[in-house]
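Structure, all two chains, one model.
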Amino acid sequence: MGAGIEVKDLNAWFGKALVLKEVNMTVNANAVTAIIGPSGCGKSTFIRCLNRMHETVPDARLTGTVHIGDMDVYAPGVIPADVRRRIGMVFQKANPFPTMSIYDNVSAGLRLNGFTRRRELDAAVEYSLRMAALWDEVKDVLKKKSGASLSGGQQQRLCIARALAVQPELLLMDEPCSALDPISTGKIEELIFQLKTEYTVVIVTHNMQQAARVADATGFFLMGKLIEFDKTEKLFTTPTDKRTEDYITGRFG
Amino acid sequence: MIRSRFQQGLDDLKERLLEMGGMCEAAIELASEAYRTRNGRLAQQVFEREKMINQSQRLIDELAVDLLAMQQPMASDLRFVLAVVKINSDLERVGDLAVHVAQRSLDLSQEPELEVPVDIGRMTTAVSAMLRRALESFLAAKAEVAQAVLEMDSIVDRMKDEAFVNLVAQMKSDPERVRAYIDVLLITRSLERIADHATNIAEDVIFWVSGADVRHNARFGMGPEGD
């Protein structure tokens, strides 16, 4: 099952630049939450704070707390790699391991975590590819084809399968469809909708229609601040804050 | 550039709907005058107006569908386009009801003059005022003006109820002219329904401006009935 997220008083910096300001947010478990906002508003930084990727950038730091389920992500002694094991991430550009077969791509995370039994790996690969709605398209070429030989949309679903294989509690997606055609986008969106039965999903998107289609809740960021966070249907029909209204109606700036 | 085209589309939609509203006001006025003066030619003019109203309805729906498909409006823009589509439908019905009034007036004009215990002129004035204010609230995007329209509806309802009682009494005392009295009764019913459509328009304006759904007696600023 997915885990809920509790973010409190989150501030994040790149060097001296404060890029996230006093963000507080409660994300429900087993729901899709979209993060929208103009370029540079801090939305990608926000999700990178959830899985401790923010600190991988030199000079980057943060204050505040993040809880994923019962895990205090920034508690002393917590190892970032352990956090990332519990949180899958999918990026804008599909990044399968190019020389590995489809099977090896999906099972890579499990093998890194010490799983070696063939039967377990087979089951995990099939489960993950089914969850990513890719199984039927690749089941006959699992070990024959490389991840890089798939189409863009299939590669992105392969990356989702790879993220799901280690059974994360949370799946972060940073503009997962921005490089895809409408048909592949439709498949990924359908998939996101299905995934919430098992996972909590947070998706960053520039595409407001996409947020409206897939998300249960949506947060609007502007200049590092969370301006409004509400049920998606409320935010897109009757936003409370004028800045949200201006952004989603295209009158921003 | 793209957003300015979108804004132009929204402005165009608003202008055309107001134009259609003006046609509806004129149709009601003509129908009422046809009744008052027993003038068949005026009734014919209402029939002509109604054809123009129907054309407007189609055009406005097309423009609204284009905007929804091409611009995917959000928030207040989305509420605006939805409100326009609904108001468009209400105005088309107002046109139909003006035709009903004109048709009954035409029938009555071919009968001997009737002693009518109902002030159709006063009722028409009230109904026209409601429609005008509803359209004004749309023009100015003012929920308070729209709210005032909702409060006027009960006045017209009372007029129709009084007309019903008086006309039924008249039918009893003058049974040979029941058919003509029924025509008058139907006119009051059409006018009362025009008032209902004006109320719907006002509710749609409130929805557009504030996001509040005030239909079915839910008040502005409150949840739905029973909430």
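The first strand of chain A starts at residue 5 and ends at 14.
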